[in-house]
Amino acid sequence: MTIGAGQQFAEIYKYAEDNGFTVAGGTSSTVGMSGGWIAGGGHSAVSGAIGLGTDNVLEFKVVTPKSSEVIVASRCQNQDVFFALAGGGHNTVGVVLESTHNTHPVMPLQVASIAILTPNAEAAQKLMELSASRALEFTNRGWGGYLALTPRVGEVSAVLMVNWKLDTAEATKDMQPIIDFVASLPKENVLINGVFPVKSFYEAFSKYFIRETGETVPVGMASTAGSRLLTDELWEPAALNKTVQSLQDYMMALNPLPTEEAYGALVLLCLTSPYKLPADGLTAEPKAWRNTVIHAFGGVAWSTLSTLKYKKSRLDALDQAVEILRRLKPDGQAYFNEAYYDEPKWESTFWDRNTYDRLVKIKAKYDPSKLLNCWKCIGWKGPSDPKYKCYP
């Protein structure tokens, strides 16, 4: 499937459905497939079955600053450009015009759609415990998707996952402890609670993902995120309790007690890794993805009317929250597209030292004047660069 750089997932998924195939893609309908998503690596609810975006991209058509000509980059030609575009971060070597991706057969799925209006912080913590403690088991049994949790009363917490291995009865049995807990909450707090069969990923996306995650963004709001790729050794018996407690602490650190100017943060625990799927070494995404159980992702928000003091307090809270995840695995990695903007060891956190050094050489070849640049991207000059003087 070949798509123009401006095509977004809503149109792509519909096209795939109409033509009888499945593609790896993100959850937000307005994200583009050829640009930032694939540049960061591109995770999906079905990555455990068919891989990351970088596993599935076959070819790019791109214009580089050096030549100003359209070149084709793939696993067979201009492999260095392909390597940089597939997981090498944003603004690396050129402007992508179109990309070509592998397709897969239509996938019948089971959808676990469980959502509540959070009655109290304890309920959110319990939902996290029931879900996160079994994340490795879920991954091995063919589950992928999202745990979206908040301790803030009246806001939505949800388990939204798909399974490509089990039938409805087996999938329901997997989810039964969570279903039973949600059923024990006041009925007025339960929005949906069950496992439902669908014929395709598009049906899951359009019927459950869009409905539960929503597609609206409040006007006048700003936000920034922080995340970590949490790998399977953190689910070993000796480490599991600390892992779950750290995730609960991460959620609470991002969510202040309600005040006149407090904005909560939804924590996403993403079961979206290509767990144990092989990599061919021709793409640049973090190697940690292959052993990742949860991509833990959350952020902080403020309005354009918020005081500078409040904005700084939320950034401090984000810094402290991400540090909780760093302490779980100090040498761990993070997904570039959803990482902390002030990540201290960003070169090895977003890639690894060898990959970063290789990307620097590729950039120097195709963008020698460093026309393309962004914050903590390949070849970044540092915060003293005049381009970034507006950053706090």
Task: List the defining traits of the structure above.
single chain, Vanillyl-alcohol Oxidase, Chain A, domain 3, about 35% helix, about 400 residues, seven-stranded antiparallel β-sheet, 11 strands
Tell me what you see in this structure.
The protein has a domain at 109-338: Vanillyl-alcohol Oxidase, Chain A, domain 3 (3-Layer(aba) Sandwich). The chain has 13 helices and 11 strands. It has helices spanning 9-18, 36-40, 47-50, 53-56, 79-85, 121-132, 135-140, 168-183, 201-213, 237-254, 308-328, 346-350, 353-366, and strands at 2-4, 57-63, 70-74, 95-101, 109-117, 143-149, 156-163, 190-198, 221-231, 267-271, 292-303. The strands form 2 sheets. Strands 8-5-7-6-10-11-9 form a 7-stranded antiparallel beta sheet, with helices on both faces. Strands 1-4-2-3 form a 4-stranded antiparallel beta sheet. Strand 2 and strand 3 form a beta hairpin. The termini are far apart.
In short:
The protein has 392 residues and is an alpha+beta fold.
CA radius of gyration is 21 Å
Mean residue pLDDT: 92
Q: Please report the distance between the alpha carbons of the first and last residues.
A: 42 Å
* SSE string: EHHHHEEHEEHHEEHEHEHEEHHH
CATH top-level class of one domain:
Alpha Beta
C-alpha geometry: globular
**Count of helical regions:** 13
Q: What about the largest sheet? A: 7 strands, antiparallel
